[in-house]
Amino acid sequence: MVWILVADTLLPTVRIRPIVVVGQYEGLKVDGEEGKMGMVRALSQVGITPITRGTPIASDINLFGFKGQTIAVSVDGEKFSNACPNRMDVPIIRLNPMEVDRIAVYPQATIGSLLGGEIRAFRRAPSSDLNLLGFLNLNALSSTGGEAGLGFEGLNQGAYVRYSRLTTYKNGEGKNFNELYDYQDTVRFAQTYYEGGFMGKFNDFSYNANIWLFKDVLFPYLMMDERESKTYAFGLSWKGNRLYVNLTDHIMDNGLRRTMMYMRSDARRIRAGLTGEIYDLYYDHWNIENIMRMGSMESRQIPMPNYRMFGATLGKSLPLENLSLFSKLGVEYALTDSAKARVFVPFALRLSLDANFSLEGTVPKYSKISFEISSSSPDPKEVFFRFDGMHENFLGNYSLKQPIKFSLTFERSVNFLGSSVINMYLFSHFVKDYVELSGKTEGMMKIVTFENTDALLLGYLFGISSEYLILNSSYTFGKNLKANDYLSEIPPLSLSLTLQTPTFYYTKAFLRFNYNDAQTRVSRTANETPVTSFRTFDAGIRFNFGNLNAEISVNNLLNENFYTYLSYRRDPFASGVRVYEPGRTLNFSLSSSLR
C-alpha cells in the first residue's frame, strides 16, 4: 500500500459517515464531489487520473499509466468486470458510497490484482441500532437534474436505495449534446439510474445483495450509447472467506443518434468466485452479440463468443522485521467457441524495506522502498475479441504474450506542524511484452489490433495535506521502447490545489484550482493527437453539524470550455469525437443520519 487518505469530507452528497481510503500511513485529506462521480473524483484529487466519458456515472481510472482493464476492482474481495467492450459499465461504479466504509488503492501486487494493481473497497457494518439515513443532490446551470438516496438500518442489517436522473449537460460555450454530437433533437436526459442493496451480519456470517440499473446513458465518444444495463450481485462471507456471483446484462445501440444504419450490441458477463486471505478462485464468462442493419440488409456477428476463464491464485505476505516479502502464483485457463484455449500464469514476487519510525522529539516519518516482479494475463478483449466493421476491423491478437512488470518504487511521508503531512511516491516500471494498441491499413480497410512491445513508465505522486491547504500533483512518462514512440493513454501532468477557511459556526469555505498540462507525448502507433492544457476553478461552502451535512458548490467556476486527453479515443466503436466537459455547474447537496 502507498498511502492512507483520511476523507472527513469525502462524498458530501452521500456522506452518511466518513469514507476512508486506506494505506500504510496517514496522509492526504480528500475533498469529495457530488453523486456517483464522487469515488472517481476523490481518487483523482490524490493523483489517480480519471478518464471522463461525457457522463458523470461512467468515469474510468488510469493508475500511474496503467489503463482501466489492467486494474482490478473489488468489494470485500468480490471482483467486478465490465460487460461492454468499451467499458461503458466500468467496475468502479459498483462502489456504492452508502455501503462503503473505506477504499484501498494498491498500485502493487495483491492476491487479486492485475498488472496495474487493485482498487479494493470494504463494506461497513450496518448499525445495530435503528438508523434512518439519506441524501439529496441537485444540479443546475450547465447540467440539471438530481439524485436521492435512502437507507434503513437496525440489528446489524441494512437496506439502501438510490435514484438519479440528469439531463445532457452543456459545455462552456453553452452547446448541448444535440448540437455537438449529432443526437436526435428529442434527446434530453443523459441518464436514469436506480440502485438497491441489502447487507447484514449474523455472528460470523455476513451477506450482501445488490442490483444496479442504468438507462439511456449517453457516450458521444462512441457510435453507440448504453440503452440499458443491469447488474445483479450476491455475496456470502464466513470468517474472511467469501463466496460471490455477479451478472451484468448490457445493451447498447445508436437509436438516439441521427443515423441511417442501426447498430446494436448485447453483452452478458458473469463473474463468480470464492476468495480468502491467501487464495482466490474464480470463473468468468463473457458473451457479446452485435447487429448492424441498413434497410433490408442485416449483419450479425458474435465478437466475443462464449469466453470462459477458470482461474486459481495463491498468495502470501511474510513480514520479516523491517523487511516484508509478498508472493503469489496462479493459473488461468481461457477459451472461446472460436479459439483454442490459452493458459496464463499470473505471479508476483515483491521485497520491501520499511523504515517506519517516530522518535520522541523528532518529526514522524515513514519510508519504504520496494522491488517487484509481477505478471497477469492480457485482457480477454485484447486476445479473443473480433469485430468486422464497414470501414474498420477490430481484432484481438490470439498470440499475445503475457506482460511481465519489473518495478522499483519509493514512498516517503513526513508529518509537520501537528496533523499536516507531506507524501511522495516515485515509481519506475519496465514492462516486458506490454500490450499496446496498434493500427494499420490494408487497402481501404483499417485494422485495429494489439501487439506486444517493451515499455518504460516513470512518474511521481506528490501531496501536501494540512488544515487549510491540500495540494496534489502527479505525472507519468510512458515510452514504447520497441517502436521508439510514446505509449498511448498516458495522462499528462496534473495539479490540484485546495484552500480552505477555518470552521466558523460549523461552516467552512473552499476554493480549488485544477490544472492539466498539455499532452504532446502521444502515440503515433495508436493514431493519437496532442491535446492542449486546461485549468478550472471550483468553489463552495460546507456546513457540518452533528450528522447533518450540507454543501453548495460551483464546479468550473469560470465556465471554461475544455476536453481531456483521455476522453475520446477508445476502440472498438469509437466515433473519434472529442467530448467536452460540463460548463459552470451549481451543486447543492444534503445528507443526514438519525443515528
Describe this structure in words.
With 595 residues, the protein is mostly beta strands. 3% of the residues lie in helices and 56% in strands. The chain contains 3 helices and 33 strands. The chain has helices at residues 38-44, 177-181, 380-384, and strands spanning 20-22, 49-51, 60-62, 72-75, 78-79, 100-106, 118-123, 131-141, 145-154, 157-167, 189-202, 205-217, 225-238, 241-253, 262-275, 279-294, 297-320, 323-336, 339-344, 347-357, 365-375, 386-388, 392-395, 404-416, 420-442, 445-465, 469-480, 485-486, 494-500, 507-516, 534-545, 548-555, 585-593. The strands form 3 sheets. The protein has a 22-stranded antiparallel barrel. It has a 5-stranded mixed beta sheet with strand order 1-6-7-4-5, with no helix packed on it. It is globular and about 70 Å long.
